[in-house]
Amino acid sequence: MLEIKKNELENILPADGPSLNEVKKYLKKYINEYIVIKCGGSVLVDQKLFDIFIKDISVLNKLGFIPIIVHGGGKRINNKLNELSIKSNFIKGLRVTKKEIIEVVEKVLIDFNHEIIKALKRQSCNSQTINSRENNIISVIQENSELGFVGIPTEINKTIIDKIVDKKQVPVIAPLGLDKDGQTYNINADTVAGSIAKRIKARRLVIMSDVEGVLDNDKKLIPEINSNSIKNLIDNETVTGGMIPKINNCLDVATNGVKGVVIIDGRKNHSVLFELLSDEGSGTLIRQ
């Protein structure tokens, strides 16, 4: 990876991404390091953003990095359930998943999983699917009976990830798992990404969403926070609502073997590359 020549780098990097000089500085930083990237929000439904995201993953792969994708699919699931006239209820942001709903969720997520694989292939980037029906790596227990088929990861099979990575392929992971009886469960994608990042001791967990990062009271981006500043931000209600569990999940990951977790805005072009390969970064970095 370190022997990439200047003209090869120029061919790999997008013209509107980080500069060549910046990228060179960060090539050594992530050698042989796992980078877990959770994509959700607009990236999954806006074709332009999706295409840019796929190109960015391909760039990381060609640079010799080890990106691991965990994808959500909430908006796609909502669209399919509406199409089938199946009503969804939510408890604290989690979908109540009955038998008829888990069947739809599984199909939508696996179809999308394969879509990502095909999109990467078009960018000359080989990848491999990981879901409840192929290469399953996630063992689960039921979160609670009220939520139905919503699971909590109890074990992550790292061996399957390593085999894929050893072939220079990108693992593409759907937020689905199996219980001891082989029943499929839906899992919150942030939870899946965090569990995998902890299990494989990733260098970075990057969470792409529809927010710029963590904002202060003046709505300005906070570049970096830690456990002390997070407590203050929650206590003074700078961070509220659904951002609290997201931040706490990030902090849990950052205190369990992952050097840094970052929340970035997936609506910005090449936000993944700017986060990993530029001086400024592109979101809020969360450390212990």
Q: How would you describe this structure to a colleague?
A:
This protein is α/β, with parallel strands linked by helices and 288 residues long. It has helices at 6-12, 20-26, 47-62, 74-83, 99-122, 158-166, 189-199, 227-235, 243-254, 271-277, and strands at residues 34-39, 66-71, 90-91, 94-95, 127-130, 138-142, 151-156, 170-173, 176-178, 184-186, 204-209, 224-225, 260-265, 283-286. Strands 5-8-2-1-11-13-14-12 form an 8-stranded mixed sheet, sandwiched between helices. A two-stranded antiparallel sheet has the order 3-4. It has a two-stranded antiparallel ribbon with strand order 6-7. Strand 9 (176-178) and strand 10 (184-186) form a beta hairpin. Helix 4 (74-83) packs across helix 5 and helix 7 (189-199) runs parallel beside helix 9 (243-254).
Spatially, the strands of the biggest sheet line up as 5-8-2-1-11-13-14-12
> Termini distance?
30 Å
Secondary-structure-derived class: alpha/beta
Radius of gyration: 18 Å
Mean pLDDT: 92
Order of helices and strands: HHEHEHEEHEEEHEEEHEEHHEHE
The strand count comes to 14
Strand content: 15-25%
Largest sheet: 8 strands, mixed
Characteristic terms for this protein:
alpha/beta; globular; two-stranded antiparallel ribbon; 14 strands; 288 residues
